[in-house]
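User: I'll paste a sequence; please echo it back and then give the predicted structure.

Assistant: Echoing your sequence first, then the prediction.
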Amino acid sequence: MSAVAVSATSLDSPHAHGLSGVASELQSLLGADAISVKEIDRLAIAHDASHYLLVPGGVLRPRSADDMGAIFASASRHRVPLTFRSGGTSLSGQAVSDGLMLDTRRNFRDIEVLDSGRRVRVQPGATVMAVNNMLAPYGYRLGPDPASLSACTIGGVVANNSSGMSSGTEFNTYNTLESLVFVLPSGTVIDTADADADAQLRAQEPDIHEGLLRLRRRILANPASVATIKQQFSMKNTMGYGLNSFLDFETPVEILEHLLVGSEGTLAFVASATYRTLPILTNVSTGLLVFDDLITAAKMVPTLVENKLSTAELLDATSIRVAQRTGQAAAALAAIDVKDHASVLVEFQGNSAEELRTLEDAAAPMFASLPVVAPVEMTTDLSERNKLWQARRGLYTTVAGNRPSGTNALLEDVVVPVDVLGETCQELGTLFDVHGYEDSVIFGHAKDGNVHFMLNEKFDDADKLRRYEAFTEDMVDLIVGRQGSLKAEHGTGRIMAPYIERQFGTELYEVMVEVKRLIDPTALLNPGVIITDNPRTYIENLKVAPAVEQEVDRCVECGYCEPVCPSKDLTLTPRQRIVMRREVQTAEEHNPDLANRLRKDYEYYGMETCAVDGMCFTRCPVLIDTGDLVRRLRSENQNKLVATGWTIAAKNWGAVDAGAGVALDIAKKLPFPAVKAVTDFGRKVMGEDLVPQYKKSLSAGGKHRVAHPDVRAEIVFFPACVNAMFGGVDGDGKAEPMNATAAFEQLCERAGVRYTVPEGISSLCCGTPWKSKGYTDGYLLMSDKVLSTLWKATRGGELPVVCDASSCTEGLEVMKSKVTAAAESQLKNGVRAGEADFAKIRFIDAVQFTAERLLPGLTVTRPLDSVVLHPTCSVTHLGVQAQFVALAQAISPDAVVPANWGCCGYAGDRGMLHPELTASATKAEAREVNERSYSAYVSTNRTCEQGMTEATGHTYQNILQLVEKATR
């Protein structure tokens, strides 16, 4: 078995024959789209956050838990192993497979809030953040709080018994679980919430029922086993199976239920989990304790634990430096003159301000006695607290993103009794030096004795691989010698499976082997994970990360970007767009024919269905905007004739914009089938990525933009061309002269705010159409025209520019930043005298300007009963969602932002070119919106309004239109 996995050398599956039989059987049962053996699908899902790589023989997307019995039966008949994949954030190799990969994220995201938030029932594909967002209005949250909560899903949280920053062992899944619905390899389905669940298990699975009782008797009869289990599970511990289940519970169904927690998909499929939730403690104070060195900091942890701190997060000197380099560090972190310093991030949480003060007052003498280098200051300021926590939560991915090119970042996860944490950290540091690992980072949940450390390793170098082997052996000796656990919360996976017996001893390891044999006798589920007879599994199938392109080389494949990607359920996610570029490069070296096939599929999967909305950037801890990659690829692969046409359009945009409006007017007057037939024909002849599909709900053309001079103006108004191209609509979808542009002008006049619209406005555009499509020549032409005009109109940046479409406001900001960055790269000493300094131009979105400047001068006379909002990706990038919500709340007592809102994928004309993208992106939000009725449906951008209209069947309008109407 090769140590390094080079996926593109061959995609032949060792289970190819069996997979053919499974595919044939399941396609007839589940539908042709349920299973894929396409190379791009297999390679894309092969990558997760771990440093292991196995390419599945096929990808299966079950529709529901009801499908699992048939899937298990077919796979068992054909001897094809199954592995479950949901968020793909696991780090230990427990979610990779060369068998059949079951995607349990796409169709398993239901969340049901119970008992006013005190309980919640969740399917495995829902992220922790999504669950907490649903619980927040009730004042509750989940107990587990992993750092990856924005991307990790309940399936993985259950499978790994994840904990996190403050949950410790008390509030992990094992201890906050109320019930599970699971499917055993035999197809038996058990809901442990049923009063007769144990009787059902005994009747349907008598061997498992009796076998579990037998194993419990075996453990209880061995005092050494009992002592080991109690000691090991007094700490965080995700090594092997949770044998504490045999001590904590008596009935087989309860034992099995809790054995499944932390079983990493090796025993059953968890179809849903019902949790007991925790109240959100809103009175919180956070502080940073800074010590001279790591050893001193670690030795103080027992003292901190005694003083009722809810969290104590350790950061070594390298961690502090990394946080400082982001430029976004909290003041307490930024102020450290780092030498050998270490810090502990601590937090108090209380039910009331009085309880919080009591906790802080009680701890004051302890804080005063600590050997800290600066006085301890606790803060309740939300902004500072968020900055402190962001430094900790983003540490792994930030450090990993700055690793040397071509190396992999390995995050290890160990736990020891708290009283030996200090000396253990010291000895870990010695091991780093002995084995030549430079700039290794130590951080983690010090309160629990749980630390993480990160190494950078080059797995395709034989000498480096031997170094990693030697280090691992020494590290195992150290942690086991301290009576610790080699995995505290990341799961055993493949990385630590060979060491379970060394940690627990032969007797308890044999019990674990018997658990696997009892429940999954044919090793159908996730073979090689937890139980293995291969002592080298931790150094086989290791992933390499070749340097491909500057935009994305620092990607660590963490998957944090995936939940916000509009194409995640259609084609590829940002992580997958990046890994497929790596796979294409590898294939070019080893299998050119494969490279050509992947490149062809990537055109649709990677480029045509990417909305380039930048939402991935908002979640990426190493600040990658995969849209930048896609825009460059579009530019490099552009049709020269079409690109020339767009350059000509940039020179004559006034005529193009007006012509498009006239065309929409004509189309609206013609029979819809006739117009659609014309566009359908054009799409067939010229290509779906070039010709938009005409939709019945599209509006007629808008009003031509004209200049509005006013020497006493307070602002420069930049009416977006999209509002001239597409006319306004009322709540019934009928033509409405009062579109966003007219509404903003009316609101300004009503509030007594004077504005000017620059000369030549009809020929100006924010440039987004050219930028998103990669037409760089046209974009540069438009940028020069727009910024030169605005420089004059704003009197050299004296007046702010307000735009009435959020995506266009963002487009103007990006245009300015690109042009000024280019100028700065050419002029090291700044702008020459007399030249325009476009960096001085200030852009404000009309939503923000209306909320902050106009609304105080308006009176709401016609409020709406209810309104539902669709925040756009541009609203997120601009940071004006709060103002958007404030406007809605000003005109309605019932303003709702759906919990499932996200980018609609319309992306200018992308939703007309590829309507399947918008349909997929809006599915969850549309379903939530249509659970009730609203008086109005609003957004902040015309094309996004169109996308949501198509998705929900309700007409979306611009928020400015509704504010104008409500304040007449």
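The first strand starts at residue 4 and ends at 5. The longest helix spans residues 806-826.
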